[in-house]
Amino acid sequence: MGLSSSTYYLPAPAGMMDEGRKCFNSMVNDFHLKPWMEHYGCMVDLLCRAGLVSEAFEFVQNMPDKPDTIIWRMLLGACQAQGDASLASQIMNHLHDTGPKNSGDYGLLSNMYAAVAEWDNVKEIRKEMKEKGVVKQDPGSSSIEL
């Protein structure tokens, strides 16, 4: 029996934490299925939407497989929504270990520090970007031709 990530994702918007947890645990314990990264991502999203960012971080740290950058960025975005700059800083350390440097990650953290007037940290982030050669990307654009 397979469980698609879109089926699993359904409880998140409705705020049905217990239902989502039950579904994930049933998949693992009752059906003995190994969750895909997408399933872990859905669980992280579910926890973050419920405001349980610290619990989501703990969940990610206990994953049997190494989390991908998408999961770390989900957590980083949730930290911004919750205003948790301390946890965001820890998550950035994990992002440094998982893949190429992304200016958006640095921008998010810098903006979080700016929002709480931690200007020394903002300066440190920008300095780190410069030292590591992380270039701020131009925002994308699109057009519609009629």
From TrEMBL:
One record GO biological process: RNA modification
GO cellular component, one term: cytoplasm
Entry's Gene Ontology molecular function annotations: RNA binding
Keywords recorded for this protein, A-Z: Repeat
Ranges in coiled-coil conformation: none
Lineage top rank: taxon: Eukaryota
Family: Belongs to the PPR family. PCMP-E subfamily.
NCBIfam families for this protein: PPR
Protein name, as recorded: Pentatricopeptide repeat-containing protein
Organism name: Prunus yedoensis var. nudiflora
Phylogenetic lineage: Eukaryota, Viridiplantae, Streptophyta, Embryophyta, Tracheophyta
